[in-house]
Amino acid sequence: MHNTCFNCDGSDLSTLYAAPAFDSSRAQSTAVFNISRCRACQLVNTTEASQKQVSSAYHTEYYGSPSSKFTSSIEFVLSLSTLARAKGMIRHWRKGRPITDQPSVLDIGCGRGHLLNAFKTCGASVLGLEREEFPDNGAANQFIEVGAIGDPQYHDRKFDIIVIWHVLEHMENHEQLLDEVTKHLSDKGILVVAVPNFGSLQQRLFSKHWFHLDLPRHLVHFESEWLERRLLERSYKIERKSHIDLLQNTFGFIQSTMNTITAHSQNDYYRILKHSRKRSTGSFIAMFGWSVFSIAVLPFALIDSALGAALGRGATVQFVARLEAGK
Question: Contact 149/182 with Cβ under 8 angstroms?
């Protein structure tokens, strides 16, 4: 069991609350983990999780197939959102550059490679890195490799855009990862980081039922100010900080509400929406019921998203950072 801080290795932890593993259902024995704040460095950690529990949480259903993870309508919305995100990152990188310039992109924790495909559509050269549990899908992953940016084969590689999109919270060596990507960022390149925001209104409202805890896969839980300080310490200039992510924030509110109602079965709706999940009459009825419920909750989710963005307390936070000249 891991019971020390992933940032400073301190053992002086203050338990905030206990929360369940979010892949558990009523039919399973529910593992419980502590959410604890380090008194020394103030980082919030997941404790009481074994390495075996964490590794087994990265299963095939978690990643999905190369073609799809969710139902077709959701996949369509996600593809549009992902393409818009890639175009936005390229526009930001191109500031002051010829419009014909094409970036090299590294996506760490790239999953099925949908963001990489979007970058390729825009003309970028791409590389994605994934953890060892990532399923081997052969030719579909021709630009995805299992490994870490600190591995010897990437020693001399430089990238114009490095993306760590909802990945840093999965890393027990997140400080080392930030140091490594800094070495591999090209001149005037940008680092894009997105994480759930533990300091959000949503987390305070839902606590142990908050969708974005994603236990036990999320080992650390960042508050936006904490992570921003870590970027500034590495001589990054924060060029954009945003708490707006309509899909992540609104769904997080909806699923967290459902988790609160069905306290002994977390993320039911999320699991039902996955394309790889076997369908039954019961699951179709549950999907319909939860979908109706989600429509009723949506106005409150939008209010939460708007308030979070206005107050800097959104459920997620995204940074676009560039190394300051001469650093």
Answer: no
- For residue 6, give the nearest of 224, 230, 171 by alpha carbon: 171
Q: 98 CB contacts (<8 Å, ≥6 apart)? A: none
Question: How do residues 97-131 score in pLDDT, each as one tens digit?
Answer: 888 889 999 999 998 888 999 999 999 999 999 98
Distances, alpha carbon 19 to alpha carbons 7, 33, 107, 185, 248, in Å: 21, 5, 30, 37, 20
Rg (CA), the chain: 19
CA distance 62 to 139: 20
* Helix, strand, coil % in the chain, rounded to nearest 5: 40, 20, 35
What is the tens place of the pLDDT at every residue in 22-71?
875 444 456 899 999 999 999 999 999 888 888 888 877 777 666 667 77
**pTM for the whole thing?**
0.91
Q: Are 71 and 77 in contact (CB under 8 A)?
A: no
Contact assessment for residue 270 and residue 211, using Cβ atoms and an 8 Å cutoff: yes
